[in-house]
Design a protein that fits this description.
single chain; about 200 residues; alpha+beta; Nuclear Transport Factor 2, Chain: A; four-stranded antiparallel sheet
Amino acid sequence: MKGALLLVALLLFSCGAPQATPNSEGCPIDDEAACGIAVEAANALAAKDAGRLVELSRTDTITCSEVARDYFPGCAKAETLEGHGLSDAELTVEFVDEDAYEARVDSLLETIIEPVEILGIGTCGPDEPGRRTYHVAWTSGSNLGSFELTYVDDWRIALPYFDSLANWESQQGDPLRNAFCEAGRSPWRDPPATDPAST
């Protein structure tokens, strides 16, 4: 029953008034550069622009001896993983090359049910270069996803997450608020109201 209630809440949320195009003025975090990438990622998602999302992404290299192997299935066959990461509600990370990454992003975008709603931005880790990450969390239909941003010379998408709301709920309570470092508790702000007298 709980899962059904969450699904109804998500569908009602998605069926409301169309969300305004995200812009930096409504970004709920103080990092201007990270907000800029978050806005670009959100708008590329809404436009179903796989090529732009790939351009905004970065590759990574993982040394298996330095991580929890259970979250990296590729470590069963290799000691070093390279490429673009992809994850889901179980938080396991698959590494693929750029061509496969673009194909997977394109496939993800084909499942999008408009409108895409940006839930907010979750903040993870201490405020130190290379240690803090941000999650741009979003919903589409009965699915929940996020673009995790990391900083290496600049902010980029390091890891997209995507799965059904039911799968997210099986892993944690109230994923619409608590997933992705509580992104739902740090929502995108509405643009300031325009004074009719000034127009």
